Amino acid sequence: MSQLKLPEKAAITSRFTSDLHLLFRLFLFPLIAAVFLALSPVGQKSAEAIPLDGIWRYYDGVAPTSPEAIPGWLNQTIRGGFAGWNIYNGISHPNIDPSATDIWVTTYVPPHSFIQPTLYFITNNQAVEVFYDSHIIYKAGDIGEENYGTRWHLMDLPRDSSGRTLSFHLYSPINQRLGVINSPNIGNAIEQVLTIVWGDVMCLLALPLSLFIIVLVGIYYISHREKMYLYMLAFMLFYSLWLLATSNVRQVFLDAPVFWRNAQLLSIYMLCPLGNLMSRELVESRDRTPFSYLIYAYIGLALMSVLGEVMGFGTLESGVSLSYLLLGTAQLYIMYLIARSAFRGNKRSRALLPSVVAIPVLGFLDGLTIYYHLLPFSFYWFPLSIVFILYFVIRILQENFAAEQLLNDKNRELEQRVQIDDLTKCFNRSTLNGFLIRDAQTCRRSRVPFTVLMLDIDFFKKVNDEFGHPAGDKVLVSFAGTIRTLLDSRHTFIRYGGEEFVILCRDFSLPQAEELARTILLTVASTQLLPDTDKTITTSIGISLWHGESDTNLIKRADEALYAAKQGGRNCYRVEAE
Q1: pLDDT above 80 for 200
Q2: Please, is 510 exposed, middle or buried when counting C-beta atoms within 10 Å of its C-beta (0-12, 13-18, 19+)?
Q3: Start-end of H helices in 420-526
Q4: Which of 74, 182, 287, 471 has a 20 to 30 A CA-CA distance from 416?
Q5: Sign of the dihedral defined by the CA atoms of residues 345, 348, 350, 353, in that order
Q6: Closest to 189 in 3D by CA, of 132, 114, 261, 281
Q7: Does the pTM of the predicted model rise above 0.70?
Q8: Is pLDDT of 9 > 50?
Q9: What pLDDT score does 24 carry?
Q10: What is the pLDDT of residue 157?
Q11: Rounded to 10 degrees, what is the CA torsion of 524, 525, 526, 529?
Protein backbone atom coordinates (compact mmCIF):
# COMPACT_ATOMS: atom_id res chain seq x y z
CA MET A 1 0.00 0.00 0.00
CA SER A 2 1.43 3.36 -0.98
CA GLN A 3 2.10 5.92 1.70
CA LEU A 4 -0.28 8.82 2.17
CA LYS A 5 0.77 12.17 0.76
CA LEU A 6 1.39 14.99 3.19
CA PRO A 7 -1.87 16.86 2.40
CA GLU A 8 -3.83 13.64 2.93
CA LYS A 9 -2.08 13.02 6.26
CA ALA A 10 -2.82 16.59 7.33
CA ALA A 11 -6.49 16.19 6.38
CA ILE A 12 -6.78 12.93 8.36
CA THR A 13 -5.07 14.53 11.37
CA SER A 14 -7.41 17.53 11.16
CA ARG A 15 -10.51 15.30 10.96
CA PHE A 16 -9.26 13.19 13.87
CA THR A 17 -8.70 16.30 16.00
CA SER A 18 -12.17 17.60 15.08
CA ASP A 19 -13.72 14.27 16.04
CA LEU A 20 -11.97 14.30 19.42
CA HIS A 21 -13.24 17.82 20.09
CA LEU A 22 -16.81 16.75 19.26
CA LEU A 23 -16.58 13.72 21.55
CA PHE A 24 -15.17 15.87 24.34
CA ARG A 25 -18.04 18.38 24.03
CA LEU A 26 -20.59 15.57 24.15
CA PHE A 27 -18.98 14.16 27.28
CA LEU A 28 -19.07 17.52 29.05
CA PHE A 29 -22.82 17.56 29.75
CA PRO A 30 -23.12 14.17 31.51
CA LEU A 31 -19.79 14.77 33.26
CA ILE A 32 -20.88 18.13 34.68
CA ALA A 33 -24.30 16.73 35.62
CA ALA A 34 -22.72 13.76 37.41
CA VAL A 35 -20.26 15.96 39.32
CA PHE A 36 -23.07 18.34 40.31
CA LEU A 37 -25.23 15.51 41.57
CA ALA A 38 -22.32 13.90 43.37
CA LEU A 39 -21.67 17.14 45.27
CA SER A 40 -25.36 17.78 45.93
CA PRO A 41 -27.31 16.45 48.95
CA VAL A 42 -28.56 13.67 46.68
CA GLY A 43 -25.06 12.47 45.98
CA GLN A 44 -24.02 12.80 49.60
CA LYS A 45 -27.01 10.79 50.85
CA SER A 46 -25.23 7.43 50.88
CA ALA A 47 -22.88 8.65 53.61
CA GLU A 48 -25.83 9.59 55.86
CA ALA A 49 -27.80 6.34 55.63
CA ILE A 50 -27.05 3.61 58.16
CA PRO A 51 -26.46 0.22 56.54
CA LEU A 52 -27.89 -2.97 58.05
CA ASP A 53 -24.44 -4.51 58.45
CA GLY A 54 -24.95 -6.15 61.83
CA ILE A 55 -25.51 -9.84 62.51
CA TRP A 56 -27.59 -11.64 59.88
CA ARG A 57 -29.12 -15.05 60.48
CA TYR A 58 -31.03 -17.49 58.30
CA TYR A 59 -33.31 -20.39 59.15
CA ASP A 60 -33.24 -23.55 57.04
CA GLY A 61 -35.60 -25.60 59.18
CA VAL A 62 -39.32 -26.08 58.91
CA ALA A 63 -41.22 -22.82 59.42
CA PRO A 64 -45.00 -22.43 59.67
CA THR A 65 -46.80 -21.69 56.43
CA SER A 66 -50.04 -20.42 57.94
CA PRO A 67 -50.14 -16.57 58.22
CA GLU A 68 -51.95 -16.95 61.55
CA ALA A 69 -49.15 -19.13 63.00
CA ILE A 70 -46.19 -17.00 61.87
CA PRO A 71 -46.46 -14.16 64.52
CA GLY A 72 -46.46 -16.66 67.41
CA TRP A 73 -43.55 -18.56 65.90
CA LEU A 74 -41.55 -15.36 65.44
CA ASN A 75 -42.30 -14.22 69.01
CA GLN A 76 -41.08 -17.53 70.36
CA THR A 77 -37.99 -17.42 68.12
CA ILE A 78 -37.08 -13.87 69.19
CA ARG A 79 -37.49 -14.71 72.89
CA GLY A 80 -35.35 -17.81 72.37
CA GLY A 81 -32.49 -15.76 70.93
CA PHE A 82 -32.90 -17.29 67.45
CA ALA A 83 -31.78 -20.71 68.59
CA GLY A 84 -31.24 -22.99 65.62
CA TRP A 85 -30.63 -20.08 63.18
CA ASN A 86 -27.33 -19.84 61.27
CA ILE A 87 -25.20 -16.72 60.90
CA TYR A 88 -24.24 -15.42 57.42
CA ASN A 89 -23.23 -12.03 55.95
CA GLY A 90 -26.62 -11.14 54.42
CA ILE A 91 -24.99 -10.37 51.07
CA SER A 92 -24.06 -13.74 49.58
CA HIS A 93 -26.28 -16.77 49.13
CA PRO A 94 -26.44 -18.83 52.37
CA ASN A 95 -25.57 -22.51 52.44
CA ILE A 96 -29.04 -24.08 52.18
CA ASP A 97 -30.68 -27.07 50.53
CA PRO A 98 -30.40 -26.62 46.72
CA SER A 99 -34.05 -27.60 46.35
CA ALA A 100 -35.30 -24.93 48.79
CA THR A 101 -37.53 -22.21 47.37
CA ASP A 102 -38.02 -20.01 50.43
CA ILE A 103 -35.97 -18.85 53.39
CA TRP A 104 -36.29 -16.75 56.57
CA VAL A 105 -33.52 -14.24 57.40
CA THR A 106 -33.30 -11.75 60.26
CA THR A 107 -31.22 -8.89 61.59
CA TYR A 108 -31.53 -5.96 64.03
CA VAL A 109 -32.31 -2.32 63.29
CA PRO A 110 -29.10 -0.35 64.02
CA PRO A 111 -29.17 2.58 66.47
CA HIS A 112 -30.42 5.77 64.78
CA SER A 113 -32.05 9.12 65.46
CA PHE A 114 -34.07 9.59 62.28
CA ILE A 115 -37.36 11.47 62.63
CA GLN A 116 -39.00 9.24 60.05
CA PRO A 117 -36.82 6.11 59.63
CA THR A 118 -37.35 4.32 56.35
CA LEU A 119 -36.02 0.92 55.36
CA TYR A 120 -34.63 0.55 51.84
CA PHE A 121 -33.34 -2.59 50.14
CA ILE A 122 -33.31 -4.36 46.75
CA THR A 123 -34.23 -7.92 45.87
CA ASN A 124 -33.62 -9.84 42.69
CA ASN A 125 -36.02 -12.58 41.50
CA GLN A 126 -37.55 -12.87 44.99
CA ALA A 127 -40.91 -12.25 46.63
CA VAL A 128 -40.56 -10.79 50.12
CA GLU A 129 -42.50 -10.33 53.34
CA VAL A 130 -41.04 -8.05 56.03
CA PHE A 131 -41.86 -8.41 59.75
CA TYR A 132 -41.14 -5.81 62.42
CA ASP A 133 -40.74 -7.94 65.54
CA SER A 134 -43.61 -10.36 64.86
CA HIS A 135 -45.88 -8.00 62.87
CA ILE A 136 -45.91 -7.99 59.09
CA ILE A 137 -45.32 -4.44 57.75
CA TYR A 138 -44.63 -5.01 54.05
CA LYS A 139 -45.20 -7.49 51.25
CA ALA A 140 -44.11 -7.53 47.60
CA GLY A 141 -44.65 -10.36 45.14
CA ASP A 142 -46.49 -13.59 45.69
CA ILE A 143 -45.05 -16.38 47.83
CA GLY A 144 -45.26 -19.62 45.87
CA GLU A 145 -45.21 -18.03 42.38
CA GLU A 146 -42.42 -17.02 39.99
CA ASN A 147 -41.03 -13.62 40.97
CA TYR A 148 -38.46 -12.70 38.34
CA GLY A 149 -36.98 -9.25 38.12
CA THR A 150 -35.29 -6.67 40.30
CA ARG A 151 -37.34 -4.59 42.72
CA TRP A 152 -36.48 -1.89 45.25
CA HIS A 153 -38.45 -1.63 48.48
CA LEU A 154 -39.27 1.30 50.78
CA MET A 155 -41.16 1.02 54.08
CA ASP A 156 -41.57 3.21 57.15
CA LEU A 157 -40.40 2.02 60.56
CA PRO A 158 -41.39 3.33 64.04
CA ARG A 159 -39.23 6.18 65.30
CA ASP A 160 -38.05 4.09 68.28
CA SER A 161 -37.13 1.08 66.15
CA SER A 162 -33.44 1.01 67.16
CA GLY A 163 -32.41 -2.48 68.26
CA ARG A 164 -35.70 -4.09 67.22
CA THR A 165 -35.89 -7.19 65.04
CA LEU A 166 -36.44 -7.20 61.27
CA SER A 167 -37.31 -10.54 59.71
CA PHE A 168 -37.58 -11.26 55.99
CA HIS A 169 -39.43 -14.16 54.41
CA LEU A 170 -38.03 -14.59 50.89
CA TYR A 171 -39.28 -16.82 48.09
CA SER A 172 -37.63 -17.51 44.71
CA PRO A 173 -37.75 -20.27 42.11
CA ILE A 174 -34.03 -19.60 41.61
CA ASN A 175 -32.31 -21.12 44.64
CA GLN A 176 -29.06 -19.17 44.12
CA ARG A 177 -30.92 -15.89 44.74
CA LEU A 178 -32.47 -16.87 48.06
CA GLY A 179 -31.34 -14.86 51.05
CA VAL A 180 -29.53 -12.19 49.02
CA ILE A 181 -30.68 -8.71 50.07
CA ASN A 182 -28.89 -5.86 48.32
CA SER A 183 -28.06 -2.43 49.82
CA PRO A 184 -30.22 -2.66 52.98
CA ASN A 185 -30.07 0.58 54.99
CA ILE A 186 -32.05 2.91 57.25
CA GLY A 187 -32.44 6.62 56.45
CA ASN A 188 -34.87 9.52 56.33
CA ALA A 189 -37.75 9.01 53.91
CA ILE A 190 -36.85 11.86 51.54
CA GLU A 191 -33.23 10.74 51.41
CA GLN A 192 -34.25 7.21 50.56
CA VAL A 193 -36.31 8.49 47.66
CA LEU A 194 -33.31 10.52 46.51
CA THR A 195 -31.27 7.33 46.68
CA ILE A 196 -33.53 5.82 44.04
CA VAL A 197 -33.16 8.90 41.84
CA TRP A 198 -29.38 8.98 42.34
CA GLY A 199 -29.14 5.37 41.22
CA ASP A 200 -30.83 6.44 37.98
CA VAL A 201 -28.58 9.38 37.10
CA MET A 202 -27.06 7.89 33.94
CA CYS A 203 -30.33 6.35 32.76
CA LEU A 204 -32.21 9.61 33.39
CA LEU A 205 -29.57 11.54 31.45
CA ALA A 206 -29.49 9.03 28.59
CA LEU A 207 -33.23 8.46 28.13
CA PRO A 208 -34.24 11.95 26.84
CA LEU A 209 -31.22 11.99 24.52
CA SER A 210 -32.24 8.56 23.26
CA LEU A 211 -35.80 9.74 22.55
CA PHE A 212 -34.42 12.81 20.75
CA ILE A 213 -32.27 10.57 18.54
CA ILE A 214 -35.32 8.40 17.76
CA VAL A 215 -37.26 11.45 16.55
CA LEU A 216 -34.29 12.73 14.53
CA VAL A 217 -33.49 9.39 12.89
CA GLY A 218 -37.20 8.68 12.30
CA ILE A 219 -37.62 11.95 10.40
CA TYR A 220 -34.48 11.24 8.41
CA TYR A 221 -35.62 7.69 7.56
CA ILE A 222 -39.02 8.93 6.33
CA SER A 223 -37.30 11.29 3.89
CA HIS A 224 -34.49 8.94 2.76
CA ARG A 225 -35.82 5.36 3.17
CA GLU A 226 -32.35 3.97 3.75
CA LYS A 227 -32.04 0.62 5.52
CA MET A 228 -29.27 1.81 7.80
CA TYR A 229 -31.60 4.41 9.34
CA LEU A 230 -34.34 1.80 9.79
CA TYR A 231 -31.94 -0.47 11.68
CA MET A 232 -30.74 2.47 13.73
CA LEU A 233 -34.31 3.50 14.54
CA ALA A 234 -35.08 -0.04 15.76
CA PHE A 235 -31.81 -0.10 17.73
CA MET A 236 -32.68 3.17 19.49
CA LEU A 237 -36.21 1.99 20.32
CA PHE A 238 -34.84 -1.10 22.09
CA TYR A 239 -32.06 1.00 23.63
CA SER A 240 -34.69 3.33 25.14
CA LEU A 241 -36.69 0.33 26.35
CA TRP A 242 -33.55 -1.06 27.99
CA LEU A 243 -32.86 2.27 29.72
CA LEU A 244 -36.41 2.42 31.05
CA ALA A 245 -36.43 -1.24 32.11
CA THR A 246 -33.08 -0.79 33.88
CA SER A 247 -33.94 2.43 35.70
CA ASN A 248 -35.37 2.54 39.20
CA VAL A 249 -38.18 4.94 38.30
CA ARG A 250 -39.82 2.28 36.12
CA GLN A 251 -41.32 0.84 39.31
CA VAL A 252 -43.12 4.14 39.98
CA PHE A 253 -44.94 3.97 36.64
CA LEU A 254 -45.51 0.22 36.54
CA ASP A 255 -44.78 -2.05 39.49
CA ALA A 256 -44.29 -5.20 37.43
CA PRO A 257 -40.77 -6.63 37.96
CA VAL A 258 -41.38 -9.66 35.74
CA PHE A 259 -42.41 -7.45 32.83
CA TRP A 260 -39.43 -5.12 33.26
CA ARG A 261 -37.04 -8.04 33.69
CA ASN A 262 -38.25 -9.62 30.44
CA ALA A 263 -38.18 -6.24 28.67
CA GLN A 264 -34.60 -5.67 29.78
CA LEU A 265 -33.38 -9.12 28.71
CA LEU A 266 -35.21 -9.08 25.37
CA SER A 267 -33.80 -5.61 24.68
CA ILE A 268 -30.28 -6.97 25.15
CA TYR A 269 -31.05 -9.82 22.75
CA MET A 270 -32.31 -7.34 20.12
CA LEU A 271 -29.61 -4.67 20.54
CA CYS A 272 -26.79 -7.06 19.58
CA PRO A 273 -28.05 -8.09 16.10
CA LEU A 274 -29.55 -4.66 15.33
CA GLY A 275 -26.26 -2.92 16.11
CA ASN A 276 -24.43 -5.28 13.76
CA LEU A 277 -27.09 -4.92 11.05
CA MET A 278 -26.59 -1.17 11.18
CA SER A 279 -22.80 -1.52 11.13
CA ARG A 280 -22.95 -3.93 8.18
CA GLU A 281 -24.60 -1.26 6.03
CA LEU A 282 -21.61 1.04 6.49
CA VAL A 283 -18.79 -1.22 5.31
CA GLU A 284 -17.84 -2.43 1.85
CA SER A 285 -19.74 -5.41 0.44
CA ARG A 286 -16.68 -7.69 0.63
CA ASP A 287 -16.47 -7.23 4.42
CA ARG A 288 -20.12 -7.96 5.24
CA THR A 289 -20.00 -11.76 5.59
CA PRO A 290 -18.57 -11.83 9.18
CA PHE A 291 -21.32 -9.42 10.24
CA SER A 292 -23.95 -11.80 8.87
CA TYR A 293 -22.48 -14.80 10.72
CA LEU A 294 -22.43 -12.91 14.01
CA ILE A 295 -25.98 -11.63 13.48
CA TYR A 296 -27.16 -15.20 12.90
CA ALA A 297 -25.36 -16.27 16.10
CA TYR A 298 -27.10 -13.58 18.16
CA ILE A 299 -30.51 -14.35 16.66
CA GLY A 300 -30.05 -18.11 17.14
CA LEU A 301 -29.03 -17.59 20.76
CA ALA A 302 -32.05 -15.35 21.35
CA LEU A 303 -34.47 -17.85 19.80
CA MET A 304 -33.09 -20.77 21.81
CA SER A 305 -33.17 -18.75 25.05
CA VAL A 306 -36.76 -17.63 24.50
CA LEU A 307 -37.80 -21.18 23.57
CA GLY A 308 -36.10 -22.56 26.69
CA GLU A 309 -37.82 -19.93 28.83
CA VAL A 310 -41.22 -20.82 27.36
CA MET A 311 -40.55 -24.51 28.07
CA GLY A 312 -39.78 -23.68 31.71
CA PHE A 313 -35.99 -24.06 31.74
CA GLY A 314 -35.35 -20.43 32.76
CA THR A 315 -32.82 -19.84 29.94
CA LEU A 316 -33.65 -16.20 29.19
CA GLU A 317 -31.13 -14.84 31.71
CA SER A 318 -28.44 -17.45 31.12
CA GLY A 319 -28.63 -16.79 27.38
CA VAL A 320 -27.89 -13.12 28.01
CA SER A 321 -24.71 -14.19 29.78
CA LEU A 322 -23.64 -15.92 26.55
CA SER A 323 -24.47 -12.75 24.61
CA TYR A 324 -22.02 -10.87 26.79
CA LEU A 325 -19.38 -13.49 25.99
CA LEU A 326 -19.91 -12.86 22.28
CA LEU A 327 -19.56 -9.13 22.93
CA GLY A 328 -16.18 -9.73 24.53
CA THR A 329 -14.88 -12.13 21.87
CA ALA A 330 -16.41 -12.24 18.38
CA GLN A 331 -17.30 -8.56 18.47
CA LEU A 332 -13.58 -7.75 18.53
CA TYR A 333 -13.32 -8.84 14.89
CA ILE A 334 -16.20 -6.53 13.98
CA MET A 335 -14.31 -3.66 15.63
CA TYR A 336 -11.31 -4.53 13.45
CA LEU A 337 -13.40 -4.53 10.25
CA ILE A 338 -14.96 -1.14 11.05
CA ALA A 339 -11.55 0.29 11.94
CA ARG A 340 -10.04 -1.00 8.69
CA SER A 341 -12.92 0.48 6.69
CA ALA A 342 -12.51 3.80 8.51
CA PHE A 343 -8.77 4.02 7.79
CA ARG A 344 -9.44 3.20 4.15
CA GLY A 345 -11.36 6.47 3.96
CA ASN A 346 -14.96 5.36 4.57
CA LYS A 347 -16.45 8.44 6.26
CA ARG A 348 -19.44 6.57 7.66
CA SER A 349 -17.22 3.89 9.20
CA ARG A 350 -15.06 6.60 10.72
CA ALA A 351 -18.16 8.16 12.29
CA LEU A 352 -19.22 4.74 13.66
CA LEU A 353 -15.81 3.66 14.95
CA PRO A 354 -16.03 5.19 18.48
CA SER A 355 -19.49 3.67 18.96
CA VAL A 356 -18.57 0.24 17.65
CA VAL A 357 -15.68 0.13 20.12
CA ALA A 358 -17.33 1.75 23.15
CA ILE A 359 -20.74 0.03 23.07
CA PRO A 360 -19.45 -3.59 23.20
CA VAL A 361 -16.86 -2.63 25.82
CA LEU A 362 -19.48 -0.98 28.05
CA GLY A 363 -21.87 -3.89 27.50
CA PHE A 364 -19.15 -6.39 28.34
CA LEU A 365 -18.39 -4.45 31.55
CA ASP A 366 -22.08 -4.80 32.46
CA GLY A 367 -21.82 -8.52 31.89
CA LEU A 368 -18.78 -8.79 34.14
CA THR A 369 -20.46 -6.61 36.78
CA ILE A 370 -24.10 -7.66 36.81
CA TYR A 371 -24.16 -11.20 35.46
CA TYR A 372 -20.74 -12.63 36.35
CA HIS A 373 -20.11 -10.49 39.49
CA LEU A 374 -16.41 -10.22 38.63
CA LEU A 375 -16.17 -6.45 39.08
CA PRO A 376 -16.84 -4.62 42.37
CA PHE A 377 -19.51 -2.27 41.02
CA SER A 378 -23.26 -2.08 41.53
CA PHE A 379 -24.26 0.08 38.55
CA TYR A 380 -24.68 -0.26 34.79
CA TRP A 381 -22.03 1.06 32.41
CA PHE A 382 -24.10 0.80 29.24
CA PRO A 383 -26.01 4.14 29.60
CA LEU A 384 -22.68 5.90 28.99
CA SER A 385 -22.89 4.64 25.41
CA ILE A 386 -25.48 7.35 24.62
CA VAL A 387 -22.57 9.79 24.26
CA PHE A 388 -20.99 7.68 21.52
CA ILE A 389 -24.36 7.05 19.85
CA LEU A 390 -25.09 10.78 19.81
CA TYR A 391 -21.62 11.41 18.37
CA PHE A 392 -22.30 8.90 15.59
CA VAL A 393 -25.69 10.45 14.78
CA ILE A 394 -24.23 13.95 14.63
CA ARG A 395 -21.30 12.86 12.46
CA ILE A 396 -23.38 10.75 10.08
CA LEU A 397 -25.93 13.53 9.64
CA GLN A 398 -23.12 16.02 9.07
CA GLU A 399 -21.69 13.76 6.37
CA ASN A 400 -25.11 13.33 4.77
CA PHE A 401 -25.92 17.03 4.90
CA ALA A 402 -22.56 17.82 3.34
CA ALA A 403 -23.10 15.22 0.60
CA GLU A 404 -26.62 16.50 -0.07
CA GLN A 405 -25.39 20.09 -0.17
CA LEU A 406 -22.68 19.10 -2.65
CA LEU A 407 -25.26 17.28 -4.76
CA ASN A 408 -27.61 20.27 -4.64
CA ASP A 409 -24.78 22.58 -5.66
CA LYS A 410 -23.92 20.32 -8.58
CA ASN A 411 -27.58 20.15 -9.60
CA ARG A 412 -27.85 23.92 -9.48
CA GLU A 413 -24.66 24.21 -11.48
CA LEU A 414 -26.00 21.77 -14.08
CA GLU A 415 -29.32 23.61 -14.15
CA GLN A 416 -27.54 26.89 -14.68
CA ARG A 417 -25.45 25.36 -17.43
CA VAL A 418 -28.63 24.29 -19.18
CA GLN A 419 -30.16 27.75 -18.78
CA ILE A 420 -27.08 29.91 -19.43
CA ASP A 421 -25.60 30.61 -22.84
CA ASP A 422 -21.97 29.47 -22.70
CA LEU A 423 -20.61 32.32 -24.82
CA THR A 424 -22.41 35.44 -23.59
CA LYS A 425 -23.45 34.18 -20.12
CA CYS A 426 -26.98 35.42 -20.79
CA PHE A 427 -30.01 33.20 -20.27
CA ASN A 428 -30.65 31.10 -23.35
CA ARG A 429 -33.81 30.97 -25.44
CA SER A 430 -35.22 27.90 -23.61
CA THR A 431 -35.82 30.07 -20.54
CA LEU A 432 -37.81 32.76 -22.36
CA ASN A 433 -41.32 31.35 -21.89
CA GLY A 434 -40.77 30.66 -18.22
CA PHE A 435 -39.52 34.19 -17.53
CA LEU A 436 -42.34 35.68 -19.60
CA ILE A 437 -44.97 33.83 -17.54
CA ARG A 438 -43.24 34.72 -14.25
CA ASP A 439 -42.90 38.44 -15.03
CA ALA A 440 -46.40 38.70 -16.47
CA GLN A 441 -47.92 37.15 -13.34
CA THR A 442 -45.85 39.43 -11.10
CA CYS A 443 -46.93 42.53 -13.01
CA ARG A 444 -50.57 41.43 -13.04
CA ARG A 445 -50.61 40.98 -9.24
CA SER A 446 -48.76 44.26 -8.66
CA ARG A 447 -50.65 46.15 -11.41
CA VAL A 448 -47.42 47.50 -12.91
CA PRO A 449 -46.37 47.71 -16.60
CA PHE A 450 -44.24 45.18 -18.43
CA THR A 451 -42.22 45.87 -21.61
CA VAL A 452 -39.92 43.90 -23.89
CA LEU A 453 -36.89 45.06 -25.85
CA MET A 454 -35.59 42.96 -28.74
CA LEU A 455 -32.07 43.82 -29.92
CA ASP A 456 -30.16 42.86 -33.06
CA ILE A 457 -26.51 43.69 -33.81
CA ASP A 458 -26.38 45.58 -37.10
CA PHE A 459 -24.54 43.94 -40.01
CA PHE A 460 -23.20 41.18 -37.81
CA LYS A 461 -22.74 38.85 -40.81
CA LYS A 462 -20.25 41.33 -42.31
CA VAL A 463 -18.23 41.19 -39.07
CA ASN A 464 -17.94 37.40 -39.39
CA ASP A 465 -17.13 37.59 -43.10
CA GLU A 466 -14.54 40.36 -42.74
CA PHE A 467 -12.85 39.48 -39.44
CA GLY A 468 -13.77 35.82 -38.91
CA HIS A 469 -16.01 33.98 -36.49
CA PRO A 470 -13.64 34.36 -33.49
CA ALA A 471 -13.93 38.12 -33.88
CA GLY A 472 -17.71 37.73 -34.15
CA ASP A 473 -17.72 35.84 -30.88
CA LYS A 474 -15.72 38.64 -29.24
CA VAL A 475 -18.31 41.15 -30.45
CA LEU A 476 -21.13 39.05 -28.97
CA VAL A 477 -19.35 38.78 -25.63
CA SER A 478 -18.50 42.50 -25.52
CA PHE A 479 -22.00 43.46 -26.62
CA ALA A 480 -23.63 41.34 -23.89
CA GLY A 481 -21.23 42.69 -21.28
CA THR A 482 -21.93 46.28 -22.29
CA ILE A 483 -25.70 45.84 -22.17
CA ARG A 484 -25.50 44.07 -18.81
CA THR A 485 -23.93 47.17 -17.21
CA LEU A 486 -27.10 49.14 -18.07
CA LEU A 487 -29.57 46.71 -16.45
CA ASP A 488 -30.79 46.16 -12.90
CA SER A 489 -32.80 43.56 -10.94
CA ARG A 490 -35.98 44.38 -12.89
CA HIS A 491 -34.42 43.13 -16.14
CA THR A 492 -33.90 39.63 -17.51
CA PHE A 493 -31.31 39.44 -20.31
CA ILE A 494 -31.74 36.57 -22.80
CA ARG A 495 -29.85 35.57 -25.94
CA TYR A 496 -32.65 34.90 -28.36
CA GLY A 497 -30.44 33.38 -31.04
CA GLY A 498 -27.41 34.34 -33.15
CA GLU A 499 -26.93 38.08 -32.73
CA GLU A 500 -30.44 38.71 -31.36
CA PHE A 501 -31.13 39.43 -27.67
CA VAL A 502 -34.25 40.05 -25.58
CA ILE A 503 -34.58 42.19 -22.45
CA LEU A 504 -37.65 41.59 -20.29
CA CYS A 505 -38.40 44.77 -18.32
CA ARG A 506 -40.58 44.13 -15.30
CA ASP A 507 -42.25 47.21 -13.75
CA PHE A 508 -41.11 49.25 -16.73
CA SER A 509 -43.41 51.69 -18.54
CA LEU A 510 -43.16 52.44 -22.22
CA PRO A 511 -41.38 55.79 -21.67
CA GLN A 512 -38.89 54.04 -19.40
CA ALA A 513 -38.31 51.36 -22.05
CA GLU A 514 -37.70 54.03 -24.68
CA GLU A 515 -35.22 55.79 -22.40
CA LEU A 516 -33.39 52.48 -21.86
CA ALA A 517 -33.34 51.89 -25.63
CA ARG A 518 -31.81 55.32 -26.28
CA THR A 519 -29.16 54.67 -23.62
CA ILE A 520 -28.31 51.30 -25.16
CA LEU A 521 -27.99 52.83 -28.64
CA LEU A 522 -25.60 55.55 -27.47
CA THR A 523 -23.55 53.23 -25.26
CA VAL A 524 -23.10 50.52 -27.89
CA ALA A 525 -22.19 52.99 -30.63
CA SER A 526 -19.60 54.69 -28.42
CA THR A 527 -18.01 51.44 -27.15
CA GLN A 528 -15.21 49.73 -29.05
CA LEU A 529 -16.72 46.22 -29.23
CA LEU A 530 -14.11 44.94 -31.71
CA PRO A 531 -10.63 45.84 -30.37
CA ASP A 532 -7.73 46.68 -32.67
CA THR A 533 -10.07 47.87 -35.43
CA ASP A 534 -11.88 51.09 -36.28
CA LYS A 535 -15.09 49.17 -36.78
CA THR A 536 -18.13 50.76 -35.07
CA ILE A 537 -20.78 48.33 -33.94
CA THR A 538 -24.39 49.47 -33.60
CA THR A 539 -27.69 47.81 -32.74
CA SER A 540 -31.35 48.07 -33.64
CA ILE A 541 -34.12 47.74 -31.05
CA GLY A 542 -37.81 46.86 -31.15
CA ILE A 543 -40.09 47.62 -28.17
CA SER A 544 -43.44 46.05 -27.23
CA LEU A 545 -45.76 46.66 -24.27
CA TRP A 546 -47.69 43.97 -22.41
CA HIS A 547 -51.42 44.54 -22.76
CA GLY A 548 -52.71 42.20 -20.10
CA GLU A 549 -53.19 38.54 -19.22
CA SER A 550 -54.60 37.61 -22.64
CA ASP A 551 -51.57 39.10 -24.43
CA THR A 552 -49.71 36.23 -26.14
CA ASN A 553 -47.96 38.14 -28.95
CA LEU A 554 -45.55 40.22 -26.89
CA ILE A 555 -42.40 38.76 -28.47
CA LYS A 556 -43.89 38.78 -31.95
CA ARG A 557 -44.75 42.50 -31.70
CA ALA A 558 -41.25 43.28 -30.42
CA ASP A 559 -39.80 41.36 -33.38
CA GLU A 560 -42.00 43.33 -35.78
CA ALA A 561 -40.89 46.59 -34.17
CA LEU A 562 -37.24 45.44 -34.52
CA TYR A 563 -37.83 44.78 -38.22
CA ALA A 564 -39.24 48.32 -38.55
CA ALA A 565 -36.09 49.70 -36.89
CA LYS A 566 -33.92 47.88 -39.42
CA GLN A 567 -36.05 49.16 -42.25
CA GLY A 568 -35.72 52.65 -40.76
CA GLY A 569 -31.96 52.71 -41.20
CA ARG A 570 -30.68 50.70 -38.19
CA ASN A 571 -28.96 52.12 -35.06
CA CYS A 572 -32.39 53.19 -33.84
CA TYR A 573 -35.42 51.88 -32.00
CA ARG A 574 -39.05 51.50 -32.89
CA VAL A 575 -42.12 50.92 -30.72
CA GLU A 576 -44.77 48.37 -31.64
CA ALA A 577 -47.48 49.62 -33.97
CA GLU A 578 -50.62 50.87 -32.20
Answers
A1: no
A2: middle
A3: 432-446, 460-467, 469-484, 510-526
A4: 471
A5: negative
A6: 114
A7: no
A8: no
A9: 54
A10: 93
A11: 60
